[in-house]
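Issue 218. Parser rejects a valid record. Input:
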Amino acid sequence: MNPLVFEETGSLGDPALHDACIYRIDFGDKQVTFFCRAPDGQSTRLELRGVEHMLSNGLAEQNVLLDVCVEDDSDVCVQVLSRVLPGAGVSQQAYRDLVLQRLQQKQLMLLRFSPSYGGEILVLCKEALYESES
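Output the parser choked on:
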Protein backbone atom coordinates (compact mmCIF):
# COMPACT_ATOMS: atom_id res chain seq x y z
CA MET A 1 0.00 0.00 0.00
CA ASN A 2 1.10 3.56 -0.71
CA PRO A 3 0.62 6.74 1.33
CA LEU A 4 -1.83 9.28 -0.06
CA VAL A 5 -0.06 12.14 -1.84
CA PHE A 6 -1.45 15.64 -1.32
CA GLU A 7 -0.71 18.76 -3.35
CA GLU A 8 0.42 22.01 -1.70
CA THR A 9 -3.23 23.15 -1.65
CA GLY A 10 -4.15 20.13 0.46
CA SER A 11 -6.07 18.40 -2.36
CA LEU A 12 -5.41 14.76 -3.05
CA GLY A 13 -3.02 14.34 -5.96
CA ASP A 14 -2.46 10.59 -5.95
CA PRO A 15 -4.60 8.64 -6.35
CA ALA A 16 -6.82 10.81 -8.54
CA LEU A 17 -10.35 10.35 -7.19
CA HIS A 18 -12.24 13.26 -8.80
CA ASP A 19 -15.65 11.91 -9.89
CA ALA A 20 -14.90 8.50 -8.36
CA CYS A 21 -17.84 6.71 -6.77
CA ILE A 22 -17.55 5.36 -3.23
CA TYR A 23 -19.36 2.04 -3.56
CA ARG A 24 -18.47 0.42 -0.22
CA ILE A 25 -17.22 1.43 3.23
CA ASP A 26 -15.94 -1.13 5.75
CA PHE A 27 -15.45 -0.39 9.45
CA GLY A 28 -13.47 -2.27 12.06
CA ASP A 29 -10.75 -2.06 14.67
CA LYS A 30 -10.06 1.69 14.36
CA GLN A 31 -9.82 1.34 10.59
CA VAL A 32 -12.14 2.56 7.85
CA THR A 33 -11.71 1.26 4.29
CA PHE A 34 -13.27 3.05 1.33
CA PHE A 35 -13.71 1.28 -1.99
CA CYS A 36 -13.86 3.70 -4.92
CA ARG A 37 -14.32 3.34 -8.66
CA ALA A 38 -13.21 6.08 -11.06
CA PRO A 39 -15.20 6.84 -14.24
CA ASP A 40 -12.53 4.99 -16.27
CA GLY A 41 -13.13 1.82 -14.21
CA GLN A 42 -10.00 2.11 -12.04
CA SER A 43 -10.68 0.69 -8.56
CA THR A 44 -8.97 2.16 -5.51
CA ARG A 45 -9.03 1.03 -1.91
CA LEU A 46 -8.33 3.71 0.70
CA GLU A 47 -7.34 2.45 4.15
CA LEU A 48 -7.56 4.95 6.99
CA ARG A 49 -5.81 3.56 10.03
CA GLY A 50 -5.91 4.72 13.62
CA VAL A 51 -9.29 6.36 13.11
CA GLU A 52 -10.27 8.35 16.19
CA HIS A 53 -13.39 10.13 14.94
CA MET A 54 -15.52 10.14 11.82
CA LEU A 55 -18.56 12.14 10.78
CA SER A 56 -20.61 11.55 7.68
CA ASN A 57 -23.83 13.14 6.60
CA GLY A 58 -25.96 12.91 3.51
CA LEU A 59 -24.61 9.57 2.32
CA ALA A 60 -26.69 8.29 -0.57
CA GLU A 61 -26.95 5.10 -2.57
CA GLN A 62 -24.27 6.57 -4.84
CA ASN A 63 -21.61 8.92 -3.49
CA VAL A 64 -19.49 10.69 -6.08
CA LEU A 65 -16.37 12.50 -4.93
CA LEU A 66 -15.59 16.05 -5.94
CA ASP A 67 -12.38 16.17 -3.90
CA VAL A 68 -10.50 14.60 -1.02
CA CYS A 69 -8.27 16.95 0.94
CA VAL A 70 -6.21 17.07 4.09
CA GLU A 71 -7.03 20.07 6.26
CA ASP A 72 -4.07 21.72 7.94
CA ASP A 73 -5.19 25.35 8.27
CA SER A 74 -5.82 25.93 12.00
CA ASP A 75 -8.95 28.07 11.41
CA VAL A 76 -10.50 25.43 9.15
CA CYS A 77 -9.57 22.66 11.59
CA VAL A 78 -11.22 24.52 14.48
CA GLN A 79 -14.45 24.87 12.46
CA VAL A 80 -14.41 21.22 11.36
CA LEU A 81 -13.59 19.94 14.86
CA SER A 82 -16.62 21.78 16.25
CA ARG A 83 -18.72 19.70 13.82
CA VAL A 84 -16.96 16.38 14.43
CA LEU A 85 -16.75 16.91 18.21
CA PRO A 86 -19.77 19.06 19.14
CA GLY A 87 -20.48 20.37 22.59
CA ALA A 88 -20.01 23.59 24.51
CA GLY A 89 -18.72 22.25 27.82
CA VAL A 90 -15.30 23.05 29.23
CA SER A 91 -14.14 19.44 28.99
CA GLN A 92 -15.34 19.16 25.39
CA GLN A 93 -13.45 22.33 24.43
CA ALA A 94 -10.33 21.06 26.19
CA TYR A 95 -10.57 17.83 24.19
CA ARG A 96 -10.99 19.75 20.90
CA ASP A 97 -7.91 21.81 21.82
CA LEU A 98 -5.94 18.61 22.44
CA VAL A 99 -7.03 17.17 19.08
CA LEU A 100 -6.11 20.44 17.34
CA GLN A 101 -2.67 20.29 18.96
CA ARG A 102 -2.23 16.71 17.71
CA LEU A 103 -3.23 17.85 14.20
CA GLN A 104 -0.68 20.66 14.30
CA GLN A 105 2.02 18.24 15.49
CA LYS A 106 1.11 15.86 12.59
CA GLN A 107 0.15 13.08 15.02
CA LEU A 108 -3.28 13.05 13.37
CA MET A 109 -4.63 14.09 9.99
CA LEU A 110 -8.04 15.51 9.17
CA LEU A 111 -9.40 14.26 5.86
CA ARG A 112 -12.42 15.80 4.15
CA PHE A 113 -14.25 13.87 1.44
CA SER A 114 -16.27 16.50 -0.44
CA PRO A 115 -19.10 15.20 -2.61
CA SER A 116 -20.27 16.04 -6.10
CA TYR A 117 -23.24 13.91 -5.15
CA GLY A 118 -24.01 12.19 -1.87
CA GLY A 119 -22.50 12.90 1.49
CA GLU A 120 -19.58 14.69 3.05
CA ILE A 121 -17.24 12.57 5.17
CA LEU A 122 -14.78 13.91 7.77
CA VAL A 123 -12.19 11.60 9.31
CA LEU A 124 -9.55 12.09 12.01
CA CYS A 125 -6.94 9.36 11.61
CA LYS A 126 -3.26 8.59 12.05
CA GLU A 127 -2.47 7.13 8.62
CA ALA A 128 -4.00 7.06 5.13
CA LEU A 129 -2.92 4.52 2.52
CA TYR A 130 -4.19 3.39 -0.87
CA GLU A 131 -3.94 0.61 -3.40
CA SER A 132 -5.23 0.83 -6.97
CA GLU A 133 -6.18 -1.91 -9.41
CA SER A 134 -7.12 -1.76 -13.08
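Fixed in the parser; the record now loads. The helical segments are 74-84, 90-104.
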